[in-house]
Amino acid sequence: MQLQVNGQPMEVDADPAMPLLWVLRDLLHLTGTKYGCGVAACGACTVRLDGQAVRSCVTPVSAAAGRRVATIEGLGTGSKPHPLQAAWIAEQVPQCGYCQSGMLMAAAALLDRKPRPTDADIDEAITNICRCGTYQRVRAAIKRASAGGNA
């Protein structure tokens, strides 16, 4: 099956029903996307599929064939972080960090759709669960990134 992951064409030999999460982690060795609950509730596995945030633990890889898959590994680099990654650091969002890749991918999808989101927009889009409870910092980081780092 042909996939486009982080802008790169990739061929995978997987059962079409295999969750995209396991294809990314086990076959493509992109381990930034995390397994949390397996039932699309927590959001640790969030990736972007054609720009939309999806829970990869319940998305069959066949649904990603021929579409653009973006993972946390493709969001930014150490030398050129995505504005959200820079805002996450500036606002000291991560504590344990486990949920952060999914949160960042959901936030990136939000900002692509709504470059200046309201609190209600953020609440609607960020349904990921953070066990450490950093929701206020997440909101501040999204607003900082939407303001070009000036929030």
Summary keywords:
DNA polymerase, domain 1; 151 residues; single chain; 2 domains; 5 helices; alpha+beta; Ubiquitin-like (UB roll)
Could you explain how this protein is built, in words?
By secondary structure, the chain is α+β, with helices and mostly antiparallel strands. It has five helices and five strands; from the N terminus they run ββαβββαααα. The protein has helices at 20-27, 83-90, 100-113, 119-125, 135-146, and strands at residues 2-5, 8-11, 46-49, 52-55, 68-70. Strands 2-1-5-3-4 form a five-stranded mixed β-sheet, covered by helices on one side. The mean pLDDT is 95.
Rg is: 15 Å
Largest sheet: 5 strands, mixed
Structural class: alpha+beta
Average the pLDDT over all residues and give the rounded result: 95
Instruction: Summarize the amount of helix as a percent range.
Output: 25-40%
What's the CATH C level of the largest domain? Alpha Beta
- What is the global morphology? globular
What's the short story on this structure?
The chain has 151 residues and is an alpha+beta fold. The chain is built from five helices and five strands, in the order E-E-H-E-E-E-H-H-H-H.
What layout of secondary structure does this protein have?
Blueprint: E1 2-5, E2 8-11, H1 20-27, E3 46-49, E4 52-55, E5 68-70, H2 83-90, H3 100-113, H4 119-125, H5 135-146
Parallel strand pairs: 1-5
Antiparallel strand pairs: 1-2, 3-4, 3-5
Helix pairs in contact: 2-5
